[in-house]
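Lecture 7 notes: from sequence to structure.
We start with the chain below.
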Amino acid sequence: MKCRHCWTVSQDGASLAYWDEGSGPVIILTNGYANSTLYWEPVRRRLRERFRVIRWDLRGHGVSGAVRDHSTMTVEGCADDMRRVMDAAGVDRAVLAGFSFGSQIVLEAWRHFPERVAGLAPVLGPYERPFDTLLHPRIGPLIFELYRRLPAVVWGYGLKFGALTPILKPIHVLARQLGIVGAEVTLEEMKPFYTHLAELDLTSWYLMGLAAQRHSARDILGEIEVPTLVVAGGRDRFSPGRLGREMAEMIPDSQLVWLKRATHTGLFDARDQIADAMEDFLSRIYEIGEDRDSPDGRVDQRDRADAE
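Predicted structure tokens for the same chain:
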């Protein structure tokens, strides 16, 4: 299947890379913090068979350019980058899906240009201050305090060291033992992510972490008026599943996909469940196919996920 690699420009002049494939109704896939489009690979391969799928790299991540104006590296600025990708791709309105930090970005998009949002899908992500719940409520804030105090270059040394080939295997084993990576996720699947960490633009990465911790979408959750699918993992150590439950409770008429065994790498270890849920969600929004699950075509994802 043909996939176009395209470019546009951020408000500060940095290049933004995006990929456009498939045909039909549109879904925009937004990455998480320190991620390239890698995490979306298993799901986007499914979605592109029935939908037009656009994925893009955040500034300083993947192959997009580094931030030029530091004041624009905010969650609002990232949402504006996504809007610019939509403009460049000729997309007026789309379903916006965000993984991890990308969840904050798509929620911020609803705040600033709701007329362009056909639906929202926050996947394994928070709606505010991600460091507050990272690993443990007592540990995350301490990590952020250290993150805030140390210069980006220091963290850069750690990221580059962690990407060295000889230690990738023990790092991966440790990550699985700690529940950071799913037990079924292979080193082969995660290796591009580990090596990508060493290629991040450190300034962009550092400023993005600060911006994520300053941000909250709590005030707009109750005002969301488009179909919303929230995906939460019961074993997620980065964005605990309870955040997904809270988000789903605050967003009117939202649906919750509860994956009790999914970690933060759920896009790999629960790929089929997430892809199924997103396909059903998109089909209902765009009124594709037959109503298979209930008289009105709606699926109770809570029941389906818990049954699994």
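Points to note: Strands lie at 3-9, 15-21, 26-30, 52-56, 94-99, 117-123, 229-233, 255-259. The mean pLDDT is 92.
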